[in-house]
Design brief:
It comes from Favolaschia claudopus. One of its GO terms (molecular function) is zinc ion binding. With 645 residues, this protein is mainly alpha-helical. The protein is 58% helix and 4% strand. The longest helix has 26 residues. It is elongated.
Amino acid sequence: MHQSLRLSDAARSKIPLQSRRFAIAAASPSACLKERAIFMQNITRIPWTIDVLAPLLPVLYALLDPIRIPSLSSSLDGPGDVVRDSHVGLEMFCVTNSLRGILTVVRSKRVSFGAFSDIWKNVWPWLQFAETYHEILTVDLIADRYVQQALFIAVLGGNREAAKTMATDIVEICVFLGRAWAHLLQADARDNAAANTALMALPDCLQFWIEHPDWSRSAADGVIVGAGGSAADLASLALLHLNRFLPNRRSPLDHDRTTVALGSLISFIQSTNHEARPPFGLGFVDVLLEMGLVTSLTNLSRAVFDGSLPADVSNLSYYEYLLAFLRPCPRHQRVVEALRAGFLPTVLQAGIALPKCRALLFDCLSSVTTLHSSLSQIRASLGQIKDINEKARFIKESSPPFYKSWQDFMAVLKDRFQALDAYNAGRLNVPICCHNHECAGTFHKQEMKVCSGCTIAYYCSKACQQTDWLGGHRQFCTRLSWRSRVDCHPEHSPMTARNNSFLHTLLYWEFRSRQKEIALGYLRFMQNKPDKTPYMLFDFRHGACQIQIDEIEELDSALTPVAVEAVAKRGERILFNLARGSEYHDIIPRLFPPFVAGREFLAGLKTIAAGMPSGAGEEQLEECCPAVMRLMEGAPKIDAGDDME
């Protein structure tokens, strides 16, 4: 036993005179229950200041001697009710108040470092006892057991140096921490200062044990069991904790304490995403995301940038954490979730406060402007930005590079919104190309049937579908499906019908509005590579659409293995029109109208190129553009055959 816990002559002399006789009697190894109860009743009648409690530490420690637990347990396991006036009730009255007193002394940092281990050895068995018999011990004295016990574990077990000397069962501690967290969050105790203090300490305490050398999968399962039994229960607690301490009219803490509460929780959530050693398994972060982590982090961002919280919450690392969930492809569903929670108004503030995040901000936003769902939400979110012109002027003065990125983004949005309006109003009657390359006809969408397997291939007739199926589509249908594709990204999400349809419209929009640029690109290609076969690629990955025309032989390095194999086995006659967007890292062939570049187009293009003088300049190339544009408009159409069943 540490010297500071012994009731020596020097320790006795420090005890207040009016309590000294009762204290010495209660701390004696032979003390009876009556003597302990008299001492505690005497002490509880006076204010509990640290100056009163600190000298009583050896007495409080003695009253927590776990040697009495077996006899209490046998009493509780037997018949009969436990009431306040029974010997069990008196015993718990002494124990509960001893725990409170020691906790007060420990939290005031009036305990010697060497005494931590001895205190913990006496405290932990009583914490276990109260947890085991809390349903039987129906007295009010243990109603706040989770508050006391959580703080004990946080203070005693949270001292990293002291914890090294503690002999304890980490699995049992983790089970209890999960139960305490669930109880404190679910209880209506917003005005309970002790409960809020315990809640603030819990995430740090959990993180401490996660980093403990004895941490194991069993310990992780212990936290999950205590939280309710599933990873979803633990994730729900984490998000409930985060949302509870966000600033609002019912927020229980002031700004400084809210910062501490949120910062510790963010650190805990980040620690669960360690790829090398995920504390709660590989899928726990996915559960957090499914339950609304992006929304909660976005709400936190808004609170900070709106001035409701100090700007040093976890050093703003949570914002980088949020962007990490939004940026990698394909994450458009998460971007939409963040936009709905108010992400866009934070972009302007974050661009000033976090220079290293500027590129990430526009990467995650620009890359999803090809999708109907995210583009519609971006438009709605622009209305959430108050005084947008004033803020833009402020950005221009404080950060010209960021202002240019913002202006470029707004220019992309202006063009995409025009396409979105045309799509929503049905003003663009976009033709569809038959996927049967022997047919290669273009038709209106209502005349076509989509393949139910991959949802990419369209056919004008049942005969074309059957021909293309036997011609090779059966080998690639499933592998091209948005529902089953995992070769691009392990989290690849399906392309919805509306997003797929809008992307098709956007391709058509870009083609129609940039025909002269495309014609000029073909002419430059034929001038430099007259013997090669061109393809056209629409690249949407970086906001503004980039149109690339290059030789089809170079596609081996750009197309997916599936697409390369399809080209090789099916002996394509049609030149590729390709699209590259945020939903994939690779290139997917899309035979989109208004023309299908086949042999006739290539022959006509070569004829036009042959008529150009050698070394023709830009002006001469532009003079030939109308002929190429007429060639692109002249793709033949054929009538649809029998409707597919």
